[in-house]
Amino acid sequence: MARVQPPSRRRRALVAAALSACVIALVAPPAAAAGPPKGHDVSSHQKHVDWPRAKAEGAGFVYVKATESTTYRNPYFRRQYDGARSVGLIRGAYHFALPDRGSGTAQAAHFVRNGGDWSPDGRTLPPALDIEYNPYDGERKCYGLSKAAMVAWIRAFSDEVRRLTGRRPVIYTTTHWWSTCTGGSRAFAADHPLWIARYGAPDVGPLPAGWSSWTFWQYDNGGSLPGDQNLFNGSADRLERFARGS
What we know:
Blueprint: H1 9-27, E1 38-42, H2 51-56, E2 59-68, E3 72-73, H3 77-86, E4 90-96, H4 104-113, E5 128-130, H5 147-165, E6 170-173, H6 175-182, E7 194-197, E8 216-220, E9 228-232, H7 236-244
Parallel strand pairs: 1-2, 2-4, 4-5, 5-6, 6-7, 7-8
Antiparallel strand pairs: 1-9, 2-3, 8-9
Helix pairs in contact: 4-5
């Protein structure tokens, strides 16, 4: 066995530098380990959101409630929407649908006039339609509309949003509502991104008819971020491309 020579001073310095770099690399999390962008959605319930804190907690995007029916406007919308932008979050607006209180066309026009517009700047998410069980009348969960009438209402809303903004809306819903109130319509899956709401499960499970994947997943109504907790299905770069419309 050959005798090992003691390392020179220069070699000892190089080895020490390499070990130090390895320690730093082990302490710092690799960029590739980052998960999908976290986000949240807020409404007037959250009022004055601490946006710097939300960003520090890991928020990458947010949806802000703008309108409901044809008359309601979130009184905190502009403060919330602009506040999110001021800290660098990609933000968008959503409309809470009440199909028994105005046509899809009228509600879409009200929405776009009051915050639901879109621009391909890479910082603005497409408009979103929140459609779920009637919170004001438990006996009329589908707002008194037949399945065919509900599909027609959603189509009218979507067509008007596209006419006014250039983009189809994201559709927020649950699998159960979609099956119950639209009869499992497949008419929207091809050109409407899905925002699925499902809590307390390790994954989203069955999706509404026609959709093979989700774009946003609302997985909890409480957590580190104000409002409901969401994930985007993709990377941060993909989220920005989605915002741009590419």
